[in-house]
């Protein structure tokens, strides 16, 4: 009975959490075909991000595994990722508070260096990136929570 009650509470609190919290992370790096963008909208996506690109062969929203300070420590590599990154180092963090009276939190930007652990052969051919290569990314994220006193005023 306690387990059933716990599951009901978790089910009800997850939508409440998602409606009152906003998180978005983007990273971009240069490749032989142009800029590649990685996008993650929610914490519960763990360390998986989506490639957003107009490059043919990458335009079907393939996932990458990019462990960082934001994400879930229990998220694991599944084996179907287009790229898996390791040795993540973040530098030059600039964090700015945000408060519009309702949404409160911060925006941040930073430089990220990663090492390519694995990648699919087709992605390797398209981007001319190999396992063991180091990449430098420009990243940003927003983390906002509805917690202000003036939410009804907006």
Key traits:
disordered N terminus, 2 helices, 7-stranded mixed β-barrel, alpha+beta, 154 residues
Architecture overview:
With 154 residues, the protein is of the alpha+beta class. It is built from 2 helices and 7 strands, in the order αββββββαβ. A 7-stranded mixed β-barrel has the order 1-2-3-4-5-6-7. The termini are far apart.
How many strands, what sense, and barrel or not for the largest sheet?
A: 7 strands, mixed, barrel
N-to-C terminal Cα separation, in Å?
42 Å
Low-confidence stretches: 1-18
Global Rg: 18 Å
Topology of this structure?
Blueprint: H1 2-20, E1 21-31, E2 34-40, E3 48-52, E4 63-65, E5 83-99, E6 103-119, H2 121-127, E7 134-146
Short synopsis of the structure:
With 154 residues, the protein is α+β, with helices and mostly antiparallel strands. The chain has helices at 2-20, 121-127, and strands at residues 21-31, 34-40, 48-52, 63-65, 83-99, 103-119, 134-146. The longest helix has 19 residues, at 2-20.
